[in-house]
């Protein structure tokens, strides 16, 4: 995998990867709450927090950049399109 950085977004909206990480964190918190409320499963806060961090990281890592997201590869020093041209 090549080293690439995210270019400055032209919008105030979060890019797809950031949104996926945030959504995964929120979903994890809700699941932990449901496990406690419905099934009386107690989980130490540190474990719930670690699960949230891991799932948020995995979501952000595996979700590909959006069609309009620009990824800049330092070796090329120019934007690389994330969608194939049509």
Task: Describe this structure in a few short sentences.
It contains two helices and three strands. The chain is mostly helical and 86 residues long.
Write up what this structure looks like.
The chain is mainly alpha-helical and 86 residues long. The chain has one domain (15-80). The chain contains two helices and three strands; from the N terminus they run βααββ. Strands 1-2-3 form a three-stranded antiparallel beta sheet, with no helix packed on it. A hairpin with a 4-residue loop joins β2 (71-73) and β3.
Keywords:
mainly alpha; 2 helices; elongated; 86 residues; single chain; three-stranded antiparallel sheet
What is the straight-line distance between the termini? 25 Å
CA radius of gyration is 17 Å
The topology string of helices and strands comes to EHHEE
Low-confidence region ranges: none
Question: Structurally, how many domains make up the residues?
Answer: 1
Strand order of the largest sheet: 1-2-3
Look at the structure and give the mean pLDDT.
Answer: 83
State the helical fraction.
Answer: 40-55%
Structural class: mainly alpha
Present the secondary structure layout:
Layout: E1 5-6, H1 16-39, H2 45-62, E2 71-73, E3 78-80
Antiparallel strand pairs: 1-2, 2-3
Helix pairs in contact: 1-2
């Amino acid at each position: 995998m090549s080293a690439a950085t995210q270019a400055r977004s032209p919008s105030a909206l979060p890019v797809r990867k950031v949104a996926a990480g945030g959504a995964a964190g929120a979903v994890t918190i809700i699941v932990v709450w449901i496990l406690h409320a419905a099934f009386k499963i107690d989980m130490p806060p540190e474990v719930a927090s670690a699960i949230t961090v891991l799932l948020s990281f995995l979501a952000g890592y595996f979700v590909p950049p959006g069609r309009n997201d620009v990824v800049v590869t330092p070796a090329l020093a120019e934007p690389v399109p994330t969608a194939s041209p049509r």
